[in-house]
Amino acid sequence: MAEFNPLIEKCDFLCVHEDAVREVLDGMPEDEKLYDLAELFKVFGDSTRIKILYALFERELCVCDISNLLGISQTAVSHQLRILKTNKLVKYRRNGKIVFYSLDDDHVNKIIACGMEHINEEPKGV
C-alpha cells in the first residue's frame, strides 16, 4: 500500500486503484452540473453576500434593515440580493411598499448551518 507523506502530499509510488476510480466516474455528474455547482459556490465567496445570507438565516429582513445592519447602501444591498435571488438562495415577499427577504428554502438554511458548524469545529489531530 502506498504511504502518504504529509510533507509531499502525494503517494510515494504510482498505484491506481482502478475499481475506486471506476466507481467514482460512474457516479460523477456531467461537467455542466459540476460547473453549475462551482458557480453556486462562487456566490458564497463574497463576504457581503455571506453577511446577508447569515442575517437572513437569523430572520426575514427588508433591504433597509439589511443596509442598516451591514452599514452599506441600499443600492449595494439590492445588487447583492439580486445575485442571491438569481442563484435561488433568497426569495422575497411584498408587504405593501416594503419588500422582505428570506432564505429561499431549507437547503440554503442547511448550507449556512453546516458552514458555521464546520468553521467552529476544533481542528482534528494530524
Explain what the structure shows.
- The protein has one domain (29-120): Winged helix-like DNA-binding domain superfamily/Winged helix DNA-binding domain (Arc Repressor Mutant, subunit A, Orthogonal Bundle), CATH 1.10.10.
- It is 56% helix and 14% strand.
- It has helices at 18-27, 31-43, 47-58, 63-70, 74-86, 106-120, and strands spanning 4-5, 10-11, 61-62, 90-95, 98-103.
- α4 packs across α5.
What key attributes describe this structure?
alpha+beta, single chain, two-stranded antiparallel sheet, Arc Repressor Mutant, subunit A, 126 residues, 3-stranded antiparallel beta sheet, 6 helices, elongated
Reported CATH architecture: Orthogonal Bundle
CATH hierarchy, class: Mainly Alpha
Structural class: alpha+beta
* Spans where pLDDT lies below 50 across 5 or more residues: none
The biggest beta sheet is recorded as:
3 strands, antiparallel
List SSEs in N-to-C order.
EEHHHEHHEEH
Q: How is the CATH topology named?
A: Arc Repressor Mutant, subunit A
Please count the helical segments: 6
CATH homologous superfamily title: Winged helix-like DNA-binding domain superfamily/Winged helix DNA-binding domain
Oligomerization state of this entry? single chain
Distance between the termini: 20 Å
**Beta-strand percentage range:** 5-15%
Largest beta sheet: strand ordering: 3-5-4
